[in-house]
Structures are given as C-alpha cells and as structure tokens.
Design the sequence.
C-alpha cells in the first residue's frame, strides 16, 4: 500500500511558486531526485517528507492525507465499471491522480462510500446464499410475498377501482382479512424458525447429545460421541478406506449394506465411515442422518439437493422412518425429491433393549444416501416421491401429509 | 377478443387478477396446476399468458420451456410473476423464453401496463 505523494508535492510546489531546483536545494536533495519523487518513481517518507512538507507550509500528514495506491485502484476500478455501463466519461479515467491530489477529502469520502457499498454487496451475497441453502426460509419468504401480493392487489382494487358490486367488495374484504391472518401466521413460523436456529448456537445441553454438522476439515471431532468413542469404529476406519472401497467395488457396487457385509462390519459404523470419505472419481459423496425414536436428530451431514432436518421432523415417507419401525431390517429406497433429483437411500435401525425396565428401548435409525441420475426402469428398488417437511411441500396429492402446505393453508 | 390465461395457484391473487383483467373487457381463463398448464394453453389458445414461477407439480419455467418448444405456442407472449427476484431467476426466465418478468408484489397498474404493452407488441 504505497502512498501516492508525487503529484501532491508537485501541485503544492507550484502553488508556492517554487522550482524543482529551489525546493530540492532547500531540503538537501538533487533536482533530479525530486523529479523522481514527483513522478512517484521514488518513495518518500520520514525526515525528508517532513522537510518537504515544511518547505511547502504543511505538516507531513497534511501532505500525505492517506492517499494510497489501494485507494486509487479502488476508485479507478469503480470508475471503469461505471464507464462500461455508460455512466462515467472514460476520458476522465486518466484524471484520477489530479482528482485525489486536488480533492483528497472528497476522494476519501468517495472511497469510504465505495468500501461501504462493497461490504453491503458482500452481505447481500451472503444472505442470498443463506436463502438458497435454507429451504424453510426461502419457502416461508415466498409464502409471505404471495400473501403480500394478494393483499396489495386486492386492496388496490378496493381503493382505486371505480364502482364495484357490494357482494364483490365484501368478497375482496374477506380475502384481505384471510391473507392478513395467513401473513401473520407465516411470520410467526419464520420467527420460530430463527429461534430454533439461534438455539443451536447456544452452549450444549449436558443431558442430550448435540446436533452436529460435519465438514471436510472437521469430520472426526464432530462425529457423535457414541461413534467417536467406540473402539470398533477405530477398527472400521482402518478397514474401510477410499482405496479399498474402490478396489473392491465389483463386490458391492458402492451399496453401503453390501460394503458392510463385504468387510463384515456393522452397517451403522460402516455408514458413518463412508460419510467421512472424500468423494473420488468412482466413489460417490455420502450424506448421513441419524435420529432416535423421538425423531430427534442426533447427527446430520448434508450433500446435494436433499435437505435434512436440523432438529426433528422431515417427510414421513423417508426410509429412515420405516427403518425406525423395524429395527434390524435394512431398508432401501430411491427417493424422488421435490426438486426433481433422485437420491439412493439406505437405512437401518438398532434398538437397545437392555435398559431399565420402566424405560422404553432406545432405538436409533441411521440413513446414508447418495445422489443419482434417474433410476433404471428395471430397478428392483422402489422409487418413492418424497418431500422435506409438509409445511413446505407442494405435493398436494400426498396421502401421508400431516400438515397443510402453508402456501395453500386456509386462514 | 383478448383472452388471458392466468397460470397461478394462489386463489386470492387469481381473484384479484381476474377482476382486474375482466374490468378491461378481457376474457380470463385460470389454470392452477403446473402439470396441466401446457395442455390447457393448447385448448384455450390465449392472446397472452400470465405465468407464476412456482406452481404445484411443474414449475412455471418448465411450463414456459415446453410452450416455447411447440410451434403452435412458441410465439405466445408470456409474462412471468415471481416472488424470486434475484438476477439468476430473471436470467433463467429469459432463457426459458419469458417475454417479461415481474417480481411480486406488484402494482395492478404496472401489471396492466405490461400486459397491454405485450399485447400491442404481439399485434404488430
């Protein structure tokens, strides 16, 4: 970040009616050296800068005024962008140094505005990214905008349209009332959604296992304690490596149940291990969800288009719920999700019966899944239309719906 | 006579649009299911389509693409309404052959102006 002082020194020198030779002599340097300084070919700082400033009747900080190469580049970049859109005269691009020299205060102000605008754009991108990755938020906002559209159009008709039959007027008034009720109900849902997100960042409860997401970099420490501390899992890690899975793919075709059987390991730990592996040319990425018999989410790793619940509740058609109802029985399903993609899912549940007699057995179901292209018509594995959560699922003809699609809900 | 096909699934928006268009003396036909929209358009033969972006069973974009692929409907003016107003959504709509993209919520006067503009352009 170099200070661009040359043009300012030259400008103030001329204002003071000093020649290069005269100023150079006063500060004890050669005229040619001052010439290099004025053309920003030599840097100037410290005592020399103070001396030059003093000779020009200024303090060093007044001379520099913080004009840096970064600042000039930022201004130039913005000017170029506007010039390409026809909102700035390209001829003025070359006058940037004159501008910052003569109007350093204005240049700073403009630079600060550009920086604030860039920060705003970044935030906008982040929020937009969050929206596209948060199906509940995106759907809820869509519903709210639909409510607002209905209210705005209808109220405009009531206020701006001329004569209207009483019956029609009453109908429109009812519609506005209905839409307003829906809007407030949806806003409340949105608030709850944010509340649940916020609570995930609070300190972990000591009585319940934490919900954890996994990323490539922190795969190991985020696994649930029941897996992380299981000695067998260390053995599973040694046995199942990406290389071995790929070498032996003819025996299992990357079917997680077949992989567990081939290596003679528990399906649950095999699923967890597969979800840790880095995808490779042949080796697909595996997503994973584990829940308990109260449908609470114990662990989730999302991949692709399938969205996993963060706390509880998903589509009752998901194979993980079928597995939960029949511990020990493997369940396979091709999930045809709302966005049109297919997901190959494998689920199994384990039940711990050895608990206190008054306690229900603790059952945990785990589902591993991969993305896939459309299933072959001769496939023996059923393909089932599934959603995410009823309130944001548009499959209107679904017999398993437990909650109305919020967009169609009656007030 | 001008016939507008409104492909939209939100009943109260439909009712407001129907009133607005009928006040102009236009015939209005409504389709609420994305999967049935293309067949309905072939039957209705509208002067213009007002198409919602998000529809049950088939998206508005998919409907537009299908209409553009068919010789009989490839030139039909389509105005898309959407709660999604991001640049990429508008770009996708343009690629699907949408003539005009409007974000929700909108002013009735703006909707009417745009519909009239598209109808006039189609007439020339």
Sequence:
């Amino acid at each position: 970040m170099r200070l661009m002082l040359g043009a300012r020194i030259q400008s103030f020198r001329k204002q003071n009616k000093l020649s290069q030779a005269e100023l150079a002599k006063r500060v004890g340097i050669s005229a040619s050296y001052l010439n290099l300084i004025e053309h920003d070919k030599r840097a100037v700082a410290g005592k020399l800068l103070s001396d030059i400033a003093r000779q020009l009747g200024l303090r060093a900080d007044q001379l520099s005024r913080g004009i840096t190469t970064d600042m000039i580049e930022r201004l130039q970049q913005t000017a170029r962008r506007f010039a390409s859109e026809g909102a700035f005269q390209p001829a003025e691009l070359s006058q940037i140094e004159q501008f910052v020299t003569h109007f350093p205060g204005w240049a700073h102000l403009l630079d600060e505005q550009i920086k604030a605008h860039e920060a705003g754009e970044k935030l906008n991108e982040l929020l937009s990214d969050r929206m596209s990755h948060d199906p509940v938020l995106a759907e809820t906002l869509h519903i709210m905008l639909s409510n607002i559209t209905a209210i705005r159009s209808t109220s405009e008709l009531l206020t701006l349209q001329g004569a209207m039959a009483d019956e029609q007027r009453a109908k429109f008034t009812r519609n506005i009332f209905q839409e307003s009720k829906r809007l407030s109900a949806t806003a409340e849902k949105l608030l709850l959604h944010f509340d649940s997100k916020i609570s995930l960042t609070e300190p972990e409860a000591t009585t319940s296992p934490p919900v954890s997401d996994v990323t490539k970099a922190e795969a190991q420490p985020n696994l649930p304690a029941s897996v992380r501390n299981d000695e067998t899992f260390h053995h599973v890690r040694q046995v199942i490596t990406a290389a071995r899975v790929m070498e032996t793919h003819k025996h299992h075709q990357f079917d997680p149940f077949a992989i567990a059987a081939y290596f003679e390991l528990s399906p649950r730990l095999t699923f967890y291990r597969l979800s840790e592996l880095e995808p490779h040319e042949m080796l697909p990425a595996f997503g994973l969800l584990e829940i308990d018999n109260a449908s609470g989410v114990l662990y989730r790793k999302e991949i692709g288009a399938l969205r996993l619940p963060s706390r509880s509740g998903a589509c009752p058609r998901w194979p993980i719920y079928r597995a939960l109802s029949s511990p020990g029985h493997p369940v396979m399903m091709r999930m045809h999700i709302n966005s049109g993609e297919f997901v190959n899912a494998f689920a199994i549940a384990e039940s711990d019966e050895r608990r206190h007699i008054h306690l229900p057995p603790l059952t945990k179901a785990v589902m591993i899944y991969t993305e896939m292209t459309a299933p072959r018509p001769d496939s023996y594995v059923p393909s089932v239309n599934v959603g995410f959560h009823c309130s944001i699922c548009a499959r209107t003809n679904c017999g398993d719906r437990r909650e109305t699609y919020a967009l169609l809900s009656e007030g | 006579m001008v016939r507008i096909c409104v492909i939209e699934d939100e009943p109260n928006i439909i009712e407001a649009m129907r009133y607005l268009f009928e006040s102009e003396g236009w015939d209005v036909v409504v389709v609420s299911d994305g999967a049935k929209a293309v067949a309905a358009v072939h039957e209705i033969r509208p002067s213009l389509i007002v198409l919602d972006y998000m529809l049950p069973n088939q998206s508005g974009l998919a409907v537009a693409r299908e209409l553009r692929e068919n010789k009989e409907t490839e030139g039909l003016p389509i105005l898309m309404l959407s709660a999604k107003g991001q640049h990429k959504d508008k770009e996708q709509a343009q690629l699907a052959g949408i003539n005009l993209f409007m974000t929700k919520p909108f002013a009735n006067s703006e909707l009417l102006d745009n519909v009239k503009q598209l109808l006039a352009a189609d007439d020339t």
